[in-house]
Amino acid sequence: MEQLQFEYPAGAPARQRVLVGVVGSGDLEVMIEPGDAGKTSIHVTTSVDGYGRVWDAQLTRVFSAEPRAAMRIRIHDFGATPGVVGMRLAEAFEALDDGKEGS
């Protein structure tokens, strides 16, 4: 298991907590909590060692596209592809925007 940490600039804190996905074969879970104003911190626990640069590229693409709410994000990965990572993050952001928890 590899542990990765990332941090990105952000706006005001998110309004709520969100949980999407499941940890299982080839999937991942994304948990979001409101963060400290001005920054989003991401902690990734992954079963695939040596993919830090891939995670960095994927997350930088997502978090540099537009300003987002300040969040503390925990991602538990069990070998998900970058496409699944993007889909789960989009699902989590949609749940934040909708004001309800995802599944």
Automatic annotation (TrEMBL):
**InterPro entries per the UniProt record, alphabetical:** Mal_deCO2ase/Cit_lyase_ACP, Malonate_deCO2ase_dsu
Q: Where in the cell is it found?
A: Cytoplasm
Keyword terms of this UniProt record: Cytoplasm, Phosphoprotein
| Highest taxon of the lineage | Bacteria
Q: Name one Pfam family in it.
A: ACP
Entry annotated with the keyword Phosphoprotein: yes
Residues of the signal peptide: none
Location (main, coarse): cytoplasm
**What is the name attached to this protein's record?**
Malonate decarboxylase acyl carrier protein
The protein's organism comes out as: Cupriavidus campinensis
Organism ancestry: Bacteria, Pseudomonadati, Pseudomonadota, Betaproteobacteria, Burkholderiales
